[in-house]
Amino acid sequence: MISWLLSSTKSKKRQQLFFHILLGWLSLYSPLPFILWFYLTLLAFTKKIFSSSGEKAVFWILTLLLYTSAFELLGRMSRASPIVPYELGKYITFLFTIIGIIKARRINPIGLWLVLFLIPGILVGLPYYTSYKDISFNVLGTINLGLGLAMLGYLRLNTNQLLKLLRLMILPMISILAYSIIRTPDLSSFDFDYQANEIVGGFGSNQVSTVYGLAVLLLFILYINQFRFSGFGKNMDLGLLGLFILFGLFTFSRGGMIGATLGILLTLFYQFKLGRKKIRINVTKALILSIPIIVLSLFIANSLTDGKLLLRYKGETYGTLYGHKKKDLNHLTTGRFLLLSEDLEVFSENPILGVGVKQAMSARDKTKGIRTHVELGRLLSEHGLFGVLVICIIFILLFRSYRKSLDNLFFSYLFVLYIIGFYTTFHAATRTFVSPLLMSMCVINYLKNKHESLTDYNKLAQQH
Asked: Concatenated DSSP letters for 393-430?
């Protein structure tokens, strides 16, 4: 199974594409196919992980996490909980990064420091928890970031391996897209308004938009590297790119699609800055083909929504259009600026230990009872001084990743992924798999020697 998933021949790519489309279609009618495939995959990877050691074990864990991460959303859409846990990504990441840390010969201490700095905030909130979900929902994502950094600090990959892993990450997103396309009603009869909706997939628009935005970025990275995703040629890849853009826009949730735009612009900057003449020519050709698809997707989406999509991205609502509300920064960020401001007020009143995990919700004034959407604000209000230390680590990693990105395209991709993960913390905190997983990959090292054992991806997949 694993060798089939990791195979990069045209025929296998086509099989993988059709299989994941079928999986998404079947999940619309019953969660059973998804549940069976998920646990079968988990069992196969677990066997591979426990039969490996050191760097190879860490490699298989990263492969598992990248492949299963987006299944979290498909499980929620198909109502597979509790057989497949609602916060699947968090639990799998926590469990397997612990295993990876045990199996790795060396670990990155900065990740362990990050986890240690989170413990005081967990203890402060201890008297107020009603279930384990208070911890898992609010802070497990940040813990996973630390554990991922600790585990991946000495893993080495080359650019080709990284691109293959990113392709693997897209496959479950194809299932989600297929689910959304089949489930979405006739858009011409749907009355869009000026706020996020659940028409695409029947689930949280912010999460769907985040996943689709990431898919757009990953497909674009593969495309400009002439790394074919579908096995049917570049036209099919461009078609999939257009569909992800189209349905991401239909959510009317701006975070994911803005993130995709940011990632694409950064990727292009590095391709032209670091790429050789041949690479620049190939990127230019890819842009000539992909830009019309992107523009056409925007035009179709805006047309089908009677022009409301463009107004939504301008920050308009019924209130602003009719003069009842003022279009300020808080309005443009859908209330996130006020949440951040009040978290900063809570921090100023509790600067040492903070108010404890989850307790900022009840400590705020105007936004009492609303879940935090900005991770930096949550770290400050709930963890106090220790949250400041966690934020310092996040920015240290950001600047380290940036410095490395200036010399090598491999590191530039890791930096772009880090930026998207970091950006996502400003509209979805660390509640999705995106931030912990993408940000923790920034410490992966570049494998220069092409003859080392981990280089041959396909042979490694077939080893038992």
From this structure: HHHHHHHHHHHHHTT-HHHHHHHHHHHHHHHHHHHHTT
Predicted pLDDT of residue 464: 35
Contact by Cβ (8 Å): 372, 378: yes
CA neighbor of 38 nearest in space, from 141, 162, 151, 171: 171
| 203-236: burial string, b at 16+ Cβ within 10 Å, e else | bbbbbbbbbbbbbbbbbbbbbbbebbbbbeebee
Residue 170's H or E segment, with its range, is helix 159-183
Q: For 398-412, what is the mean pLDDT?
A: 93
Q: What is the mean pLDDT of residues 73-77?
A: 89
Predicted confidence (pLDDT) at residue 318 exceeds the cutoff of 90: no
User: Quick one: tokens of 134?
Assistant: 């208070």
Tell which residue, 194, 171, 199, has the closest CA to residue 183.
199
Six token digits for residue 225: 């590297």
Q: Which of 34-48, 163-177, 182-196, 389-403 has the lowest mean pLDDT?
A: 182-196
CA distances from 107 to 113, 153, 223, 232, 454 (A): 12, 6, 34, 41, 18
Are the C-beta atoms of 418 and 127 separated by less than 8 Å?
no
Distance of CA 338 to the CA centre of its chain: 25
Alpha carbon 121 to its chain's center: 25
What's the pLDDT score for residue 463? 46
Instruction: Count helices and strands (H / E) in the chain.
Output: 24, 2
Q: Which amino acid is at 122?
A: I
Residue type, 297: S
- How far is it, in rounded angstroms, from Cα 51 to Cα 66? 20
Q: Using one digit for the tens of pLDDT, what is the confidence trace for 160-210?
A: 999 999 999 999 999 999 998 888 766 666 667 766 666 776 667 888 889
* Chain mean position to CA 377: 20
Which tokens belong to 397?
């990693």
Six token digits for residue 92: 């799998």
Is the peptide bond preceding residue 82 cis, with omega within 30 degrees of 0? yes
Rounded Cα–Cα distance for residues 67 and 167 (Å): 9
HSE value, Cβ hemisphere, 13 Å, CA-based, for 319: 10
Residue type, 128: Y
Tell me what percent of the residues of the chain surpass a pLDDT of 90.
51
The neighbouring-strand residues paired with 156 are 445
Angle at 68 between CA 450 and CA 414, to 5 degrees: 45
Residue 427 vs residues 28, 340, 423, 434: alpha-carbon distances, Å: 28, 11, 8, 12
**Nearest alpha carbon to residue 141 among 379, 443, 385:** 379
